Amino acid sequence: MKALYIAASGMMAQELNVEVTSNNIANMRTTGFKKQRVDFQDLLYQDMRRVGSQASDSGNVLPTGVQVGSGVRTAATPRIMSQGTLSSTEKETDVAVKGEGMFRILLPDGRTAYTRDGSFELNNSGQLVTADGYSVDPAITVPANAANFTINAQGVVQVTVGNATTPTTIGQIQLARFVNKSGLEAIGNNLFLETGSSGAPQVANPGDEGYGTLLQKQLEAANVNSVTEISDLIAAQRAYEMNSRVIRAADEMMSSTVSPK
Predict the structure, then answer these.
(1) Domain-by-domain residue ranges, the chain?
(2) Ranges of the chain with pLDDT below 50
């Protein structure tokens, strides 16, 4: 009975839906996290009577026909790259992007990764790095005798060195944009990699046309709405239950057919 397989595909689809939703909820407090959703598509149809075919020798054409679907499949789990809420941290190495753009991060293997997580630190060499020790690209190194570390809206990094009365520029933070942000590959640790679907990165300074600005001592929260996620979770659970009932109903119908009178 096809209903068994159709309902099974629905249960597997909703199981994945719950997994994606649970990951969104789990990362509600993850800095710069971007939530995902699940897109579904119906599977191939079997034509019992093809629509538009000739219905009789007299040339009558079927106006609708008879088609039976074979279930559902997961088409994609696109990432929603909308802006998260900005919050103050009072930590001078924390930076948030307000608007378009991602920080560039140099990985140990030489690849460049991208992130919206601006919770940076200074390593033992005074270099601006991520929580995992990956360097911000281009590299920014703060002198040991520096004070008054500042990052302005355009990404210019300045410090006051020694007894100087005027600040010294020590670096420039840049941002990268992509034609298709949802095409980036998430690799964990709040990092993304360029793919053929995302397109090549377009790098510029914060505040340039089409690029966001930077806010020091602030961080971007996850763009996860708890109410929406709980509603989606309940809907997925109900859909799963309904598909399981279809399986039970199909089983009962089969049992009635094969059971002796």
Answers:
(1) 2-28+39-76+224-258, 86-220
(2) none
